[in-house]
Write the structure tokens for this entry.
Amino acid sequence: MNAHTHSSLESDIKNHLNVQRWRHDFPILQTRLYGKTLVYLDNAATTQKPYTVMEAENHYYRYDNANVHRGIHTLSQRATEAFEYARVALQHLINAQYAHEIIFVRGTTEAINLVAQSYGRSRFKAGDEIIVSGMEHHSNIVPWQMLCKQVGAILRVIPVDDAGELDRNTYDALLCQRTKLVAITHVSNTLGTINPVKRMIDAAHAHHIPVLLDGAQAIAHLPVDVQDLDCDFYAFSGHKLYGPTGIGVLYGKSALLDDMPPYQGGGDMISSVSFEATTYNKLPYKFEAGTPNIAGVVGVGAAANYLNSIGFDAIVGHEQALLRYATELISEIPGLRIIGNASNKTGILSFVLQGLHPHDIGTFLDRQGIAVRTGHHCTMPLMERFGVPATVRASFALYNTISEVDKLAEAIYQVKEVFK
Ligand code: PLP
């Protein structure tokens, strides 16, 4: 055995041990369906939760439950401490400069709506342009369309090429004086494409145009450093990073957030209220009206700590290995077409099989205990671009294994046989 194969064998073994260790953190992975152990490959829709996240929420309700920020009593102080501790964990996860740049919202969708209705509605006017891309999730299209209707602005779209990459030249050409915002996804939920966002942000900033990144599919799979990216807004959901549903984050640069009007009015977001005038609270509370999802915040804080404890070197290395292996294996299947062949991807594999509807494939795979997503993945314009009504999407997380990829490939061969 030469030195190279020896070291690659060593790293394979280490990787295998790591994954087995991580799998123990996720009790749901022991589930059996139709006599088979669950193979969960629907991670782009939502990830499974480790014990540490469930225990953090449970601990909060069992020992600390009280409303935050307003109470003088001990439990309220404990709840507030846990809540603000989570904010700092999220700050560290994305390397934000200040904790008050982390705004807790319901998820990516609410974060984008907040920017559209607070930042966009107060500044944009008729004829202004907003640039999105052809691979956006509906939640990074519809809020801008709603805003365009309200203020008379115009949506411009960066086209997607056959490989599933954004057309750079058109993007550069679209940036102009009328452009008031660029809102693009960091990673495509359908194609897995990792967009060259740093370069795109630099290009926008050269025209003094701010950039919002939809980080829903990046946050658990890539190291995200908002200061290095220099993005102006970054949106993500807790449930895609091994945390709970119903909680997410809008990151915004302090100066921008400070200047923006509140999104919703209510308790907690004010400093003083009278019938004549109300003054607003400072950041981040100005954007957190009403009693927040305290348990959700505590849970997503635990998820951020969990990810930080594993580290992105290990996560990226493992998920890229899964992607390479799966791409090779699945490409060999006759009649199978992978949608999305960008040179830089996360562990997302969308495909169609000649003569078979994705829903039939999904139903067959489910009976084999394999969970994948089928449909348009909330990216209808992208489906139209590739001329397909739907795809089958397998998406990987840190706990998936090579043997699960083998099971997926085997089941695809079987479904072809059955429906022949
Ligand atoms: N953006 C992308 C790229 C997504 O994949 C998703 C969810 O699938 C969203 C936005 C919306 O996230 P949420 O439904 O958690 O708000």
Notes: The domain at 53-309 is CATH 3.40.640.10 (Aspartate Aminotransferase; domain 2). The CA atoms of residues 315 and 398 lie 6 Å apart.
